[in-house]
Write a structure and sequence with these properties.
Blueprint lengths: L1 H17 L12 E10 L7 H9 L15 H9 L5 H10 L11 H14 L6 E8 L3 E9 L5 E7 L4 H9 L14 H16 L11 E8 L4 E8 L12 E8 L7 H6 L5 E3 L2 E3 L8 H5 L12 H13 L3 E10 L7 E10 L3 E11 L5 E11 L8 E12 L9 E13 L18 E13 L3 E15 L4 E16 L3 H8 L2 H6 L3 E13 L8 E12 L1 H9 L11 E2 L2 E2 L3 E13 L3 E14 L50 E12 L4 E13 L22 E12 L2 E12 L19 H7 L1 E6 L4
Parallel strand pairs: 1-3, 4-6, 7-9, 7-11
Antiparallel strand pairs: 2-3, 5-6, 8-9, 10-11, 12-13, 13-14, 14-15, 15-16, 16-17, 17-18, 18-19, 19-20, 20-23, 21-22, 23-24, 24-25, 25-26, 26-27, 27-28, 28-29
């Protein structure tokens, strides 16, 4: 085994050496491997990291992308030269990158660029030198910048002669980006100009531009301070200082990019609604639905905020492919008015899509899956989105101890989304920038586990979705009903349930009726943010209304005779979960972390959580070194479940943590190194489950840990993921034997078969 492991390590070593890209350089050339910037100064400097970042942004060129000393893109580019097929050679070169040679670098010019960047950061007298560091095949450069303490902002004075504009600037001064004591920074000054321009644009100044604003700097060398004065440039156009109002609003609800000239020339009978002109009397979407998403009315002052709100709301209706808004000054020079024209290009009303794929699960079950989807983007002429989905799947083990077990399922769902709140009483949306949605959904699922049981599930949802801001989303389902029944039970299945009364309750007929709420905060919509936060909290309750009704009737539930609705026992529980993620982005890589915590408690009419509401751990989006839903509860062993594989035991509590380093290999091929940890637990002990319930004193000793590597084929909106993982800690083993790192044996086929898990999935795990 020792020899076999060393052969694996040696093979990996030679692959790493071959991928450095140093063997095929042009004669006499060396590879440029990058540069560093060193600051030399005395005293204390505020925001040192920002200054270093400014200096680094001047470094040109960028070296070849590397990871752990490897340069796979460079290697691929060089390898392509040895190929004879032209098309294949071009494809490989497109995926790779050419070598960045030392002769491409001009360090003297770069040093000047660094000084210029430092000047913009308030260091007006920086002197940068450089040193070339060479090896046999590589060159790197060290830039040393001798700097002084950056100049700091002192006073900012407004010298605006236009009283109206000056009053607007003064009113918005509390939100200024130029704060006393901050380092002088040219980029911050530019952003302040844009902020001030935004103030004017939202108050009718349609023709104003940021470059009409002039900041003059007066430096005080003795104190390293900068005073700024703001004024309007002399060349500012007169109309840029005038407020403009909306005159006429015209909407073309069926605009085509191909024949727009012909459309504009056709004399069609218009339709006028609330002083807004529609170019066609017959519209596919009802006029009032369109108008409720237009933020302007005739005679309103122009506002950039309303402009963007109208664009955003019309686009997020989901009915239009393109939305354009054109503002044109009226011919008369005596009136400061704009004609507003909205051009709407509809999407195809109906689409039908089908897909078939092979699903492979981490418990070695595989099988085909088929889905058919019908989408109508304007179901009732009010921009309602009707989504009908029908799917089916089959899964079994081809090899393995459960190869005689299989199951198939049929899933159907009908959803309709209204682009507004559909409620008995008028309800204003808290943010007019986004379109609220009302959702109604009916779904039916049928699952047959051969030799065990049939499961039928009927669900109805009525709820709302709305955005508070670009990063904040809310979803509330005040009505969330789920009816689950298990029929056609076999004797083998009944025997398994008889051996485990706890699981028997989970698999009983359930009537789940309650409310569901989700709050999501995600900074992933901000692509330029280096450190992106994601936070999702979900709360759910069930059965409380029915329970209150029974309490008022003097019919409280008990363990022997729980109350029923329409002859079915209703579930009563509360459930809360949080999902916290962080993405630290670099140029060609990122570090993704995730922490999940959830708990659910049955009470009143129920003694256990319904099976579909329990927490599970293990699988492609969980702890990837263990089969799907196989972990826990606690120290319960996955190796003694036998034929009850289909009866996966969930938990009331779930804790999981994930750490993943993602990096680019080629243009569409990404790599990952990851570690996962987690488990599920019960609140109460269960005689059929080995181990104890959740305990604050020892839960951390029962955490499963795994690690692995992954490859991801990332093609724009589609990601195919392959993750291979091995367990490092098995919580069901005796306490002093749970860490199994010393038992890793990649060269042993038997060990690989028992421990390595291949996860094939669509999309990233988190």
């Amino acid at each position: 085994m020792w020899i076999r492991n060393n052969i694996y390590i040696g093979s990996i070593f030679f692959v790493l050496v071959a991928c450095t890209g140093l063997k095929r350089l042009p004669p006499g050339e060396k590879l440029y491997t990058g540069a560093k910037v060193k600051l030399v100064y005395s005293g204390k400097i505020k925001h040192k990291n920002d200054i270093i970042s400014s200096a680094k942004s001047a470094i040109r060129p960028q070296p070849n992308q590397s990871f752990l000393g490897m340069r796979p893109k460079l290697w691929l580019y060089q390898k392509a030269d040895s190929l004879k097929k032209k098309k294949l050679k071009e494809k490989l070169k497109d995926q790779g990158e050419p070598p960045v040679l030392a002769s491409d670098v001009k360090p003297a010019e770069t040093a000047k660029f660094i000084d210029a960047k430092l000047f913009n950061a308030g260091i007006f007298n920086a002197i940068t030198s450089y040193k070339i560091i060479e090896t046999k095949r590589t060159v790197k450069i060290l830039y040393t910048s001798h700097i002084h303490i950056p100049y700091q902002m002192n006073e900012v004075n407004y010298e605006i002669k236009n009283p109206k504009i000056d009053s607007l600037f003064q009113a918005g001064r509390k939100k200024t980006l130029l704060n006393k004591g901050d380092n002088y920074n040219l980029e911050t000054i530019k952003k302040e100009r844009e902020r001030l321009d935004d103030i004017l644009k939202n108050d009718g100044y349609f023709f104003f531009r940021p470059d009409y604003l002039l900041f003059k700097a007066d430096t005080l060398s003795a104190t390293k301070k900068v005073n700024l004065s703001l004024s309007l440039k002399d060349e500012t156009l007169p109309r840029a200082l005038q407020q403009f109002r909306i005159s006429n609003i015209t909407i073309n609800p069926d605009y085509s990019l191909e024949n727009h000239a012909q459309q504009d020339s056709l004399a069609q009978e218009p339709l006028v609604v609330d002083s807004v002109v529609f170019t066609k009397k017959e519209t596919k979407v009802k006029p009032w639905v369109i108008l409720q998403n237009v933020s302007f009315k005739p005679h309103d002052l122009y506002s950039r905020k309303k402009h963007n709100s109208t664009l955003n709301r019309l686009m997020t209706m989901g009915t239009y492919k393109f939305v354009r808004i054109k503002f044109t000054p009226e011919d008369s020079a005596l009136t400061n008015t704009l004609d507003m024209r909205i051009l709407l290009t509809p999407m195809d009303k109906r689409t039908l899509r089908s897909e078939a794929n092979m699903v492979s699960k981490s418990n070695d079950f595989i099988g085909p899956q088929v889905n058919i989807n019908y989408l109508n983007r304007n179901a009732f002429n009010g921009a309602e989105l009707l989504n009908v989905n029908l799917g089916g799947s089959f899964e079994t083990q081809i090899i393995g101890k459960y190869k005689n077990l299989y199951s198939y399922s049929i899933n159907s769902k009908v959803e309709i989304f209204f682009p507004r709140f559909v409620v008995p009483i008028p309800l204003n949306h808290p943010n007019n920038f986004y379109v609220p949605k009302t959702k109604m959904s009916v779904g039916y699922n049928y699952l047959k586990r051969i030799a065990y049981f049939d499961l039928r599930s009927l669900q109805f949802i009525y709820g709302f979705k709305w955005k508070e801001s670009a990063c904040k989303d809310h979803e509330l389902n005040p009505i969330n009903i789920n009816l689950v029944s298990i029929v056609n039970r076999t004797p083998a299945f009944n025997d398994l349930l008889a051996a485990n009364p706890f699981i028997q309750k989970s698999y009983s007929e359930q009537f789940i009726a309650g409310a569901w709420y989700s709050f999501l905060y995600s900074e992933q919509i901000l692509p330029n943010k280096k450190n992106q936060l994601y936070f999702n909290v979900v709360a759910e309750t069930s059965g409380n209304t029915f329970s209150l009704f029974n309490q008022l009737r003097g019919n409280p539930p008990n363990d022997e005779r729980p109350n029923k609705i329409a002859g079915i026992v209703y579930s009563q529980f509360g459930k809360l979960s949080t999902d916290l993620r962080n993405y630290l982005n670099f140029k060609h890589s990122k570090i993704a972390t995730r922490l999940f915590a959830g708990a659910g408690k049955a009470y009143g009419n129920s003694s256990t959580l319904p099976y579909i509401k329990q927490f599970f751990s293990g699988g492609a989006n969980s702890v990837r070194a263990f089969p799907i839903n196989s972990l826990g509860p606690g120290t319960h062993s996955t190796e003694i479940r036998g034929a009850s594989l289909f009866l996966q035991q969930g938990g009331d509590i779930k804790l999981e943590g994930n750490l993943e380093y993602r990096f680019d290999i080629f243009k569409s091929l990404k790599g990952a190194i990851f570690t996962d940890a987690g488990n599920v637990w019960l609140f109460k002990s269960n005689p059929a489950v080995t181990g104890d319930p959740f305990s604050v004193d020892k839960f951390y000793k029962e955490i499963a840990v795994g690690a692995g590597i992954g490859l991801r084929i990332d093609i724009t909106f589609f990601v195919l993921r392959f993750d291979v993982a091995a367990p490092l800690r098995k919580p069901w083993l005796p306490e002093n034997e749970r860490w199994v790192i010393n038992k890793l044996a990649f060269g042993n086929p038997a060990w690989r078969g028992d421990n390595l898990i291949l996860n094939v999935a669509i999309g990233y795990p988190f």
